[in-house]
Amino acid sequence: MLLGKYAHYYHVSIPLKMKLIGQGKVKDVYELSDKELLFKFSDRISVFDQIIPSAIPRKGESLARESAFWFKKLEKAGINTHFLELPKPDEMRVKRVRVIHDYSKLNTKLKDYQIPLECVLRWYCAGSFYQALKSGKKKPEEFGLDHMPKYGELLKTPFFEVTTKFESIDRKLSREEALKISGLTEAELDEIKNICIKVDEIMQNEVGKRGLIHVDGKKEFAMDKDRKLMLIDTFGTADEDRWWDAAEYAKGNIVEISKEFVRKWYENDVVYKCPGNTGKTFSYKQFLDQLREDNAPQVGIPPLSTEMVDKTAKLYKDLFERITGERF
What structural domains does the chain harbor? Predict the structure, then answer.
């Protein structure tokens, strides 16, 4: 199980009649039948690819309800999804498709399978997109840009990129490789991009009413039993998408409303002293980066303070209400 040595920090009530077939950093996946799955959203939180040994009250509920909110919106817009219902506030029942890890078995005639790609649509210069430009690893022209954009700048056209889904480390893919490993036709990959644009436009129209900017986010797709594209997994949540405050953005300020402040806590406030009397200190993130650079055994991430747990729980509550317009 992914939780490993952190499992004792969490109390998980597992339904006796369902089989646990997958466990991620946030949600657990149960088999209901050969046609349906149940997603159980936990209160776990992760940063730097590590699960923090602190539960955030009702975090799972906020993510499940946000996802269901968007799936229902898309149903009305005529977009095909795997969503069936929300049996409980932290559970989602969905259609099941085959998961095939062997790329050679995927082709343009195959039906009922998960497409092994993660799709990201970027509307602003932020995140890894900005870091790639700032570091010089990528040139603006590689992204179809005619200048070096500033952080937070609105792109003239949204930038669409895909990465691997089932590999141990996500790899960014060229269009040619994405087609090669996914079993998609040129037209189907273009359709995925167009669906992402349509979904994001629906999302921005909705959250704009409550002073949010949807910056970017990932989406996943499958082919249904008729080989029709189907939006799957979860999206549009506090965990998976980037959100900015619109009023602050209008003033020239970037105020990110996400768990970024949790990352910053480990980067700035969790401090260790160097051995000896050097007086030097380093943060947990610096310590972790050095261990990874040295290929040394990694240490468990420390738990959040009580104050940070409370602040994080409030962030998920407040963002839920701004995303959905509903009371939490």
Answer: 4-95 (3.30.200.20), 103-257 (3.30.470.20), 260-312 (no CATH)
